[in-house]
Amino acid sequence: MVRPQHIQLTQSEKSTITVIEQQFMGDHCRYVVDIEGTRVLATSLEALDVGQSVAVSVDAQGIVAFA
């Protein structure tokens, strides 16, 4: 499991990942992005627009595995 705060979004013109929803949360925004048909929830301090292409990175320390 990866929490949304451990998924980072940055602007990228070359990416096929697209912002499909945006919700203002005060000091940050929560985004839903479309990654090849899969919706992923992420947060960012960077202002991104719906329809914008983004790159996604994951903080490996934020990954939790369940057995």
Quickly describe the structure:
The protein is an all-beta fold and 67 residues long. It contains no helices and 5 strands. This is Ferric iron ABC transporter ATP-binding protein.
Topology:
Elements: E1 7-11, E2 17-24, E3 29-35, E4 38-44, E5 53-58
InterPro entries: Mo/tungstate-bd_C_term_dom, Transp-assoc_OB_typ2
Organism: Vibrio maritimus
Keywords: ATP-binding, Cell membrane, Membrane, Nucleotide-binding
Would you mind describing this structure in some detail?
GO terms for molecular function: ATP binding; transmembrane transporter activity. Residues 1-66 form the Transport-associated OB type domain. With 67 residues, this protein is mostly beta strands. It has one domain (4-61): Nucleic acid-binding proteins (OB fold (Dihydrolipoamide Acetyltransferase, E2P)). 0% of the residues lie in helices and 49% in strands. It is built from no helices and five strands. The chain has strands spanning 7-11, 17-24, 29-35, 38-44, 53-58. The chain has a five-stranded antiparallel β-sheet, with no helix packed on it. Strand 2 and strand 3 (29-35) form a beta hairpin. The chain is globular.
- Poorly predicted regions: none
Order of helices and strands: EEEEE
* Nearest-integer average pLDDT: 88
Fraction of helical residues:
under 10%
The number of domains: 1
- Name the CATH class: Mainly Beta
Give the N-terminus to C-terminus distance in angstroms.
Answer: 11 Å
Kindly identify the CATH topology. Answer: OB fold (Dihydrolipoamide Acetyltransferase, E2P)
How many runs of DSSP E, i.e. beta strands?
A: 5
Largest sheet: 5 strands, antiparallel
Secondary structure category: mainly beta
Task: Please list the strands of the largest sheet in the order they lie side by side.
Answer: 1-5-2-3-4
CATH architecture annotation name? Beta Barrel
Shape: globular
**Fourth-tier CATH superfamily name:** Nucleic acid-binding proteins
**Taking Cα atoms only, what radius of gyration do you get, to the nearest Å?**
12 Å
DSSP summary: helix tally: 0
Strand content: over 45%
